[in-house]
Amino acid sequence: MYAFYSLLVYIFYTVFKKEEEEALGAAQGGASAQPGHVSMETRSRRKKDHTHRKERKKRGRGSRLSDSSSSSDSDGLSLSDEDDDDGGGGEVPDIPACTPLGAFLSFKQENEKRREVQVQLETAGKLMSESPLVAVMSHLLSFLEQYSHLQQLQQQADQYRVQLKRHRAQHRRQMKTLRTSYRQRLRDKNSVIDSLEEAITTQQYTPSTPGSNGECGADVPGAGAGAGLHRLVESLYGLQGEKSQLRGELRLLHSQLEQREQDRHSRVQVFQHQIDELKSCIEEREEELSRLRTASGATDSEKRVVCLSAENESLKQSLTVTQGLLQQLSVIPSQSSSVLIKENENLRSRVQQLESSLQQRADQLSHLERQSEQSEWRRGEEQRRREERVRELQLELDKERAKEPQVKIVTQTVEVESPATLRQLAEARERNEQLSEKLTNQNEKCRQLEEHIRKSDEFSCNLQHKIAAYEREISVLQEELLKEIGHLEEKKEEAVKAAATCSVEHFQSLQDQFFNLQKRLTALPPTLRTMKTDYASLRSQVRNFSDFYGAAITDAKKQISAAMREMSEANKDLLEKYRKEVALRRKYHEQLVELKGNIRVLCRVKPVLKEDQHEEGQSVVVTTDPNNESALSVLKGQGRSHNFELDRVFHPQATQEEVFQEIEPLVTSCIDGYHVCIFAYGQTGSGKTYTMEGSTENPGINQRALKHLFSEIEDRKDMWIYTVTVSSVEIYNEVLRDLLSKDGEKLDIKINPDGTGQLHVPGLRLIEVKSFQHIKKLLAQARRNRITFGTQMNQHSSRSHALLMITVLGTDLASGAKTTGKLNLVDLAGSERVWKSGAEGERLKEAQNINRSLLALGDVIQALRGKEKHIPFRNSRLTYLLQDSLGKGNKTAMVVQVSALESNVGETMCSLKFAERVCKVELGPAARKIQRGGGSHQCD
Ligand SMILES: Nc1ncnc2c1ncn2[C@@H]1O[C@H](COP(=O)(O)OP(=O)(O)OP(=O)(O)O)[C@@H](O)[C@H]1O
């Protein structure tokens, strides 16, 4: 079976290859142009893929991502072979073209280009798909398509991974810029604090001058100056409280900033963690993909194909052939692959949309993060400056506190030097007021700064919210992306599983077939050997047998020919004996018949003619026995049959000659001086006229009898002289008519006045005939003159009894003895049932007369049979006329005509029963009418 498939596939492959080459040659002006074109296109496509890949790699390098995961870029097994021009092609392991899979894939790619050219081979390709091997290869093809789809997905995953890395790098850059902006802000804050510090320094410088002056002028005591100093100290304490308050606030702000920084950091960590998770997820997918690629059914199938190819040369040939067939099969559009491609396109567009939206979100996020980092940095800087300023103010305050005893001394001094001190005090108060104003201004500035910090905090908070919202969006998008990837993975796994299962099943079945074939093949050699030995022995036997057979046949032939000779001799003897026996029996029978004077009764069965089949489907009820010429059986119906035993029965196919041969001896006896009567009896249409007269081509008893008479006369002419006279009459409605007379006058039967007592018909024409030709004319005339009409039973029914009376007067030349022989040949009118013949009027009268005369004949027969003294010959013209022939010492033969059809079974039974009665009639020994010397007498 497998060999058959292989042969079939090979034949198809050869045919299709040839047609394909012709088609390609016709379509592209040469068989060699197409492969080059295809390879060019393939190369250009490969180059495009390669350029795209290179760009991606450049981008990957540009981002300076040194993650270990970046090495996975080169993990994928791409369907598009890349050139190694740039030396970087080694990163992507190409499928070697020498492997079956590589050849298969390149074959497939070329086939995709040839599809349009090979449309005319679709029908043949469809036919080929019915082969199991082709089905397997189609499954392999679909599986490889799935595999290429998987590779595309992997490439997309790689792209996503690279994009994620790029996003991460961007985030890092943004974080860096945020940090720098934060530092910048801190620096700004420090500068603000420096400006405050300067202001405070200026404020300090102003009291230090009076202090130095006071030191100089301590000798000038004054009460106003002491109060001013006291207020100054109080204001300084107030300032110190305010500073400590500001410090607390700044600490609070600092802690808040730290908290926010921590939050931000934690968020960044969470985001980083999510990115890592995504990365690990992608890596897992990659691993899974690689695992699937290395351990999935495709590789197994491929390995199995290779193993199978290696195991069996025939399978290898089939695989090669199948590769060729793939060209044909590739033109068959795969609905599933087209759907997958469509889905893949949709997914690609969807992924692109998601990528673009993700890119936008990432850009916005980076921008916001940058702003946030800047604001945070500024706030940090400001806080730092404020802290430093507070610290310095604290130091100033401590210094001022440390100077307090001098002030008291100065105050005492002022009390002593009152006018100068008062003036200084006034000046100090003025300065104090100025400082107060400055402090107020500083406070205002601090408030403004605080307000600014608050606003920046709010802005930062808003930014954090936005970042959180964007992160949520990113997470949602990531989830969607993961879902899509998962969905694609599931589809891919399903497709891979289905293809793998299918291919495994088909390979299993192929393997089973292969193993079965192997088993058969292994079982075949011993069988073949035994067959060979058997054949050799048989051959030798046959060779010997031919000699043996020839000798045996020769012996057998000899034996058979000897046996046949013996048999034929014995048969000849037997046949001779049989013939003699039959002749003897016949002779004895005839002698017996002659002695008894029985009427010989013959029966002739009419063949079934077309015109007799008035009713369709009539069965034949009369059967003859081929082994018994005297038996006849009539099936009466309901399974009952009646057997008749007559002198001779003629089957339907009996010829006129056969019938006459039976009559011939009687005809001969006529020449010898006997009175012979032969009459035909039977129902109308049963063949009486046919038997007696016959047709021109096939004459009946009348012609044959006369012919025989003349031949006998001719034979005896040396010894006897014969005179033959002929007369013919018909009895129609009990009226005698001369059939040889032209006027057809009526005749009467009378006793001959010569005293012989014989019947005499005055006026009847007696025509002496010299030749057979003469008698033929007379017979034709008589036939013409006979009255016939058409009835339902016979279109040319004879409505009269016709008598051909032949008188043969013979003179023995030697003795002078005279013989008078008479031959009455009677064709009786048909016995018929009036209702059946449809007779009416004149025909009815005819029928009644016919039946009456036949009844009279029956009465005569009955009387003769009963050997009654009175025979009623005179009851009818017919019996009266036949008195000479039917009476004692005459030879009589009756031919009973019967129909074999079921519809005539009643008439047939009547006729045969009448024949049976006639059979038993004993006329006594026949007497020869001879005149010797002077007197005539009868001799037995
Ligand atoms: N043995 C036969 N072979 C062929 N045809 C026959 C045979 N016997 C009778 N026929 C045909 O049957 C038809 C009727 O036969 P035929 O006229 O001799 O019947 P019949 O007994 O004389 O009838 P009827 O009493 O009405 O005159 C004729 O056409 C005749 O040719």
Give a short overview:
The protein has helices at 2-28, 33-62, 100-114, 122-128, 132-216, 223-295, 297-311, 313-330, 335-402, 404-416, 418-596, 656-671, 688-692, 701-715, 772-785, 834-837, 842-865, 877-881, 883-886, 905-919, and strands at 600-606, 622-625, 628-637, 640-645, 648-650, 675-682, 720-732, 735-738, 746-747, 750-751, 759-760, 767-769, 788-789, 797-798, 801-812, 818-827, 891-899, 928-932, 935-939. The protein has 940 residues and is of the alpha+beta class. The longest helix is centred in the middle third of the chain and has 179 residues, at 418-596.
Topology, pairings included?
Blueprint: H1 2-28, H2 33-62, H3 100-114, H4 122-128, H5 132-216, H6 223-295, H7 297-311, H8 313-330, H9 335-402, H10 404-416, H11 418-596, E1 600-606, E2 622-625, E3 628-637, E4 640-645, E5 648-650, H12 656-671, E6 675-682, H13 688-692, H14 701-715, E7 720-732, E8 735-738, E9 746-747, E10 750-751, E11 759-760, E12 767-769, H15 772-785, E13 788-789, E14 797-798, E15 801-812, E16 818-827, H16 834-837, H17 842-865, H18 877-881, H19 883-886, E17 891-899, H20 905-919, E18 928-932, E19 935-939
Parallel strand pairs: 1-5, 1-17, 6-16, 6-17
Antiparallel strand pairs: 2-3, 3-4, 7-8, 7-12, 7-15, 8-9, 10-11, 13-14, 15-16, 16-18, 18-19
The structure holds adenosine-5'-triphosphate.
Folded structure, characterized:
- The protein is α+β, with helices and mostly antiparallel strands.
- The protein has a domain at 597-932: Kinesin motor domain (Kinesin, 3-Layer(aba) Sandwich).
- It has helices at residues 2-28, 33-62, 100-114, 122-128, 132-216, 223-295, 297-311, 313-330, 335-402, 404-416, 418-596, 656-671, 688-692, 701-715, 772-785, 834-837, 842-865, 877-881, 883-886, 905-919, and strands at residues 600-606, 622-625, 628-637, 640-645, 648-650, 675-682, 720-732, 735-738, 746-747, 750-751, 759-760, 767-769, 788-789, 797-798, 801-812, 818-827, 891-899, 928-932, 935-939.
- The strands form 4 sheets. Strands 1, 5, 6, 7, 8, 9, 12, 15, 16, 17, 18 and 19 form a 12-stranded mixed sheet that branches. A 3-stranded antiparallel sheet has the order 2-3-4, covered by helices on one side.
- Residues 1-9, 26-101, 123-130, 207-225, 295-299, 329-336, 407-411 and 934-940 have low confidence and may be disordered.
- Adenosine-5'-triphosphate binds next to helix 13 and strand 14.
